[in-house]
Amino acid sequence: MKILSVNAGSSSLKFTLFELPEKKELINGTFEKIGLNDSFYSIKINGEKTKKEASLKSHADAVNILIKELLENKVISSLEDLDGVGHRLVHGGNKFSKSVIINDEVLEAAEECIELAPIHNPANILGIRTFMKALPNVAQVAVFDTAFHQTMDKEDYLYGVPYEWYQKYGVRRYGFHGTSHRYVYKTICEELKNDKLKVINCHIGNGSSLCAIDSGKVLHTTMGFTPLAGVIMGTRSGDVDASIIPFIMKKENKTCEEVVNDLNKKSGLLGISGVSSDSRDIEDGIKEGNERCQLANDMLCKSVANYIAMYNNMLNGADVITFTAGLGENSILTREAIGNLISSLGVKIDKERNNVRGKMTLISSDDSSIPVYIVPTNEELMIAEDTYELIK
Ligand code: AMP
Predict the structure, then answer these.
(1) 3-state DSSP call for residue 212?
(2) How many CB atoms lie within 10 A of CB 232?
(3) How many CB atoms are located within 10 Å of the residue 182 CB?
(4) Which of 81, 145, 262, 366 is catalytic?
(5) Residue 297 Cβ < 6 Å to ligand 1
């Protein structure tokens, strides 16, 4: 079956076409700056990437070009060759605990979640509607970032705030990156031939979250009501005392939205280092002796290490710790530093094994109390596999 995996943002659209169940990637690409004057797209096929300029006034233009590229590159011979389209949807609220075939009811429910994810859900829904119009006979599936975390217990997803806020407005921990956490969990279970593993997965990228999973059930995850909470990220603060918001509003004469924007876009590695949100720049800064880059990285590693210790307690002893996403898969320095910070748990990172990027690898030494692995994530494949399972 040929399944298209789609991630539509407000001004971008990423896609990958898979052949399933073989898990073969046929073509992928990204449309960028949709609606702007300098829009363009890039396509990668047989390892070769080409970038093309194109007038992309709307998502519909991007979808039309996408279909044309699939036909011209002969990855499909007609639209009938496409068996399904899987869409990333950031927020499914309390309503979705797994992926679903999209119908009017699902779209309505996803629209009700817009107030919980005002930036992401409208773009995701726009992508779905555009594909439904362009490919009316192809099944469309929604895969939610929040769905995997719906198994959390109430005492773990509620905040210590008036209970009515939860009842009336749905104020609770939802968690995000669920598709990635689920993919990594499934992959490590397959690798170790055990589907009852107790895993602490560290998804550390530009956005970061940790997740404690026992036999497929999520016990806890670091992101919360929104993806702002948890560990320090590229530009996001992670956990802060809410009282900082009115304090800075007064001091800097800012609105609440402006301060929350600062917490989302001007904090984290960028805010602390004053240099960059990108950990490669932070690592370069550290090599040059930049103290604030060192501080930013130390803070990130400590916040991850502290959550690992907490999750090890919640899991009553983890079987495996996994690292994934941009930094988790590629930053040798960060993995080693986090490993050192959890040595009290008996974890030992092997320097030589850890000297690797982007590959499924055991990076702990044989006498480590908990084995530590790199498991590259693949959210696109997970979206395609869910779609395949639902429509086959
Ligand atoms: P993601 O959001 O998963 O794409 O991750 C993006 C983050 O991964 C950025 O901060 C990158 O700097 C970081 N990253 C990617 N490659 C490397 C690398 N080789 N070394 C250190 N950090 C990396």
Answers:
(1) strand
(2) 23
(3) 25
(4) 145
(5) no
- Phi, psi (degrees; rounded to nearest 5) at 196: -115, 20
Q: Peptide bond preceding 21: is omega within 30 degrees of 0, i.e. cis?
A: yes
CA of 270 to the centre of ligand 1 (A): 14
- Ordered structural domains, the chain, with CATH: 2-144 (3.30.420.40), 194-379 (3.30.420.40)
pLDDT digits (tens, 9 = 90+) for 87-141: 999 999 999 999 999 999 999 999 999 988 888 899 999 999 999 999 999 999 9
Q: How far is CA 50 from CA 19, 27, 44, 66, 69, in A?
A: 22, 12, 6, 13, 12
Any ligand 1 atom below 6 A from CB of 206: yes
The strand pairing partners of 82, in sequence order, are 2
Q: What is the DSSP string of 314-345?
A: HTTS-SEEEEEHHHHHH-HHHHHHHHHHTGGG
Place of tokens 């099944």: 139
Distance in Å, CA 269 to ligand 1 centroid: 12
